[in-house]
Design brief:
Subcellular location: Cell membrane
Number of helices: 27
GO cellular component, one term: plasma membrane
Family: Belongs to the ABC-4 integral membrane protein family.
Structural class: alpha+beta
GO molecular function: transmembrane transporter activity
Protein name: Membrane protein
Shape: globular
Largest sheet: 10 strands, mixed
Length: 852
């Protein structure tokens, strides 16, 4: 306890590292638990006792179907439900999520967070969760009601005109009312029409419903009511209790939340790993500085176990303090994340803030266990200090035998990791190679950490010769200080190495993916423009007609995706395959390589193509007959006219047929809408056609027109956004690593107090002293950066070889990013040295010389 409080300043940065790591874990758990609570309340409040829906509807209530219209059931079902035993009331409703809503200026009112846009009929069930705060509920086709959050975000008011765009057409109406949520709205935009208008706008016909909401009579359980209703309507409809509907929604949302939670916890784990190096360095230096003190304790009777326990007790206290503060900071991080999500349109109320009892327990256990484990080696080293150490003026000598063992072990691990990476790069299958890649990454990382002191001796000398020698004696002293304790320098550099290795690896992979896709676009795409929705919405017939009517077009190609089961000549059935149905001009728009036949022949009547892997698996050759059972149609017997190569990126694994062939077996009212539309301008009219296309689709803001340059930039931006998000999460580990450099330098200055006093006494100025410490910090930071960037580029290049098996064959090293990170590391070193250098410069010379 005395040692801890005597050196609380030296412990502070280690406590901050523990605090940050625990806070990130705790914040992640609180944030995801709060989101679960929010959605649970929403699903419980919006679910009726029993819901009847068309069989094609999903369990989550999602109503989008291939033809852009929601699955419906006849209005006669409502009468049957009302006659069932135990029914207090029943109401037919219509709603759809396959919609776009625009304001009078044709600006999209859909949420930017990815939450759905819902248009439905105003009904009693909605009235339980929504309160009309302005105006009135819609009556008649000219009125619509909007939720208050959407109205506030887009500055909508009563009387404003909006347009609802569906597969049926565009319906315009004026806002008659604004309704506020009685539970937290996670970001959905909701618009209400009267029932008849909703039927005609969303489905295109009256006397149909998407759902029937049923309320149980007093004393009737939901389970019994479901049984009664199911018996009344027959087996052609889906009947769910409130719990079943809520559970299905919860499962759907939970899958997304789990991905996000475990990804964030993974980055927290990286921060913990980096923090381990900081704690090890802190306690190693404290033990070295107290060698004489520990020796005296041993001389007067302290046992090795007692000395060991005293150091571990300090670590335990450090872990407890850091973890307690971290748990509190984690709640603050969770609130901050909720505010951040609010800026993107997903509203989360702090009233739903959920801190489960397990969350602080997990944070405390992690923080304390990691801290104590990290302090174990320094504690063990302290226990080995002999009573004779009390007679020495310097710390205990390094264990040369241990250094040799460490070097050999590090070389073996690094070599084994290198072999794993080589086997990954040489693998014939991506799945097999990914296992070798994972093993190689882990082993090389551990190997570099273990071998760090050996590498420090060589790398620091090289960096010193290149960067420090120009600064004369001060530069040489900085180099020798960094080399004085290679183990310490290696551990400090390793903390920075981990974060930068991941940054370099992901930069190489991301850059290679963009370069490979760009290369494929240049080689394969033969069309000028691609029209699609960035949110995955299908393209309405009205928008397709607008494209076709655009002047200056040579050809327009429609592209649909149909679900089907395929029975192959080997007697097997391949379920849930997709057939990409397109116009015959698609063979020109996408120059897909074939291994047999001509792709244009696949668009002949009753013909199709299959991809190479599928053909080999099922023994399909040119001329083979396959039975295609379309999900929304009948079974067709099609002839295979082409086999496409698997060595592609765009449409890899696609099977093609013509839209005309699909139309023979799928009714027009069930035919899916277009997924994409390709447009090619007449020769020399590309610029004018581009402008005309954008103008033609002005009324359909949900669709984006891109030429090949735009498409490449969009791809680059998407990958760039993902990488920036990952870099942001990795910043936590890098911040902890910087704290490690600061702590190492601060403790090193304390350790060298007498030495610094003597140097000042013989003429070293304060400015020279500060420069020496800054240079030492820079060289340590650059050492870690060199290891991390080199290691990361090796991982990234190996990962790209695996991606090459999937068609991404271009290796692109983003040198500007790599060089920028390396230079930034030097500034990190300078920043980390500011406080230690300032403190060293303020030392009183006489007091420093007198220090024992």
């Amino acid at each position: 306890m005395r040692n801890f409080f005597a050196h609380k300043g030296r412990m502070a940065l280690s406590a901050v590292a523990v605090l940050l790591s625990v806070a990130f874990v705790t914040g992640t758990l609180v944030f995801t638990d709060t989101m679960n609570t929010t959605f649970d309340k929403l699903f419980a409040a919006t679910s009726s006792d029993v819901t009847v829906s068309a069989k094609g509807a999903s369990d989550t209530g999602e109503t989008t179907s291939g033809n852009g219209k929601p699955p419906v059931m006849p209005a006669a079902v409502l009468a049957k439900v009302r006659e069932a035993d135990g029914v207090k009331s029943a109401e037919g409703t219509v709603f759809s999520t396959s919609v776009t809503v625009v304001d009078a200026d044709k600006d999209n009112l859909s949420p930017s967070s990815g939450a759905p846009t819902i248009v439905g009929s105003w009904n009693a069930n909605e009235a339980r969760t929504m309160k009309v705060t302005e105006g009135a509920a819609p009556k008649g086709s000219g009125q619509v009601m909007v939720d208050a959050d959407t109205a506030d975000k887009h500055h909508l008011k009563l009387g404003d005109e909006i347009g609802v765009i569906t597969a049926v057409g565009t319906h315009t109406a004026k806002i008659s009312g604004i309704a506020a949520f009685q539970v937290t709205n996670p970001g959905a935009a909701i618009f209400y029409l009267d029932t008849r208008t909703a039927q005609e706008t969303l489905v295109g016909e009256s006397n149909v419903y998407t759902n029937v909401n049923v309320t149980a009579a007093a004393g009737v359980s939901d389970a019994q009511l479901k049984k009664n209703v199911a018996a009344a309507v027959g087996g052609d409809y889906k009947v769910q209790t409130a719990k079943e509907t809520a559970d299905a929604n919860r499962k759907d949302v939970g899958e997304f939340l789990n991905v996000m939670k475990y990804a964030m916890l993974g980055f927290a784990g990286i921060a913990f790993l980096v923090g381990i190096f900081l704690i090890i360095n802190t306690f190693s230096m404290l033990v070295a500085q107290r060698t004489r003190e520990i020796g005296l304790m041993r001389a007067i009777g302290s046992s090795r176990r007692q000395v060991n326990r005293s150091v571990l007790a300090e670590a335990l206290l450090l872990g407890v303090v850091g973890s307690i503060l971290g748990v509190g900071a984690g709640v603050g991080i969770a609130v901050g994340l909720m505010k951040l999500m609010g800026m993107t349109g997903m509203n989360l109320s702090t009233d739903d803030l959920t801190v489960a009892w397990t969350t602080p327990v997990i944070g405390m256990i992690l923080g304390v266990v990691v801290t104590v484990l990290a302090a174990y080696l320094p504690a063990r080293r302290a226990g080995k200090v002999s009573p004779m150490a009390a007679l020495r003026d310097v710390g205990a000598p390094a264990d040369a035998k241990a250094g040799v063992v460490r070097a050999v072990l590090g070389l073996l691990l690094t070599g084994a990791g290198g072999c794993g990476l080589y086997l990954a790069a040489a693998a014939d299958k991506a799945k097999e190679g990914s296992l070798w890649l994972g093993l190689g990454v882990v082993l090389t990382l551990i190997g570099f950490v273990v071998i760090g002191p050996l590498l420090a001796s060589g790398v620091v000398r090289v960096l010193g010769a290149v960067l420090l020698r120009a600064f004369g004696p001060v530069g040489r002293m900085a180099e020798r200080n960094a080399l004085r304790n290679p183990r310490r320098t290696g551990a400090t550099g390793a903390a920075l190495m981990i974060g930068l290795a991941l940054v370099a690896c992901l930069s190489v992979v991301g850059s290679s993916m963009v370069a490979s896709a760009t290369d494929q676009l240049d080689k394969s795409v033969g069309t000028d423009f691609i029209i699609q929705s960035d949110t995955g919405q299908q393209i309405t017939p009205q928008a397709v007609q607008a494209v076709k009517s655009t002047p200056g077009m040579e050809r327009v190609t429609e592209y649909k995706v149909l679900d089907a089961d395929i029975r192959t000549p080997d007697g097997k059935t391949s379920a849930k395959e997709t057939i990409n149905a397109a116009d015959p001009t698609y063979a020109t728009d996408l120059r897909t390589e074939t291994v047999a036949g001509n792709l244009a022949d696949a668009y002949r009547p009753d013909s199709m193509s299959v991809f190479e892997g599928f053909a080999k698996e099922h023994g399909i050759k040119l001329g083979s007959k396959v039975d295609v059972d379309f999900k929304d149609g009948t079974t067709a017997t099609l002839t295979v006219r082409a086999i496409t190569s698997d060595d592609v990126v765009i449409d890899k694994g696609a099977m093609y047929a013509s839209i005309a062939t699909a139309a023979k077996y799928v009714p027009a009212d069930r035919m899916p809408l277009d997924q994409l539309v390709f447009a090619t301008a007449k020769e020399g009219q590309q610029d004018a056609a581009y402008t005309a296309l954008k103008s033609a689709l002005h009324d359909y803001p949900q669709y984006t027109v891109r030429d090949q340059t735009d498409y490449k930039q969009a791809l680059k931006d998407q990958i760039g956004q993902l990488l920036n998000l990952i870099y942001g999460l990795l910043a936590l580990a890098i911040v902890v690593a910087v704290l490690g450099v600061v702590n190492t330098l601060a403790l090193s200055v304390v350790e060298r107090t007498r030495e610094i006093g003597l140097m000042r006494a013989i003429g070293l100025s304060r400015r020279q002293l500060r420069r020496m410490i800054r240079m030492e910090s820079v060289v340590i930071a650059l050492f870690g950066a060199l290891l991390g960037l080199g290691l990361g580029m090796g991982w990234g290049a190996t990962a790209q070889q695996l991606l090459a098996l999937e068609g991404l064959k271009v290796l692109d090293i983003p040198w500007p990013t790599i060089i920028g990170v390396f230079i930034a590391s030097a500034f990190v070193g300078l920043f980390a040295a500011l406080i230690p250098a300032f403190r060293a410069g303020r030392m009183n010379v006489l007091n420093a010389i007198a220090t024992d």
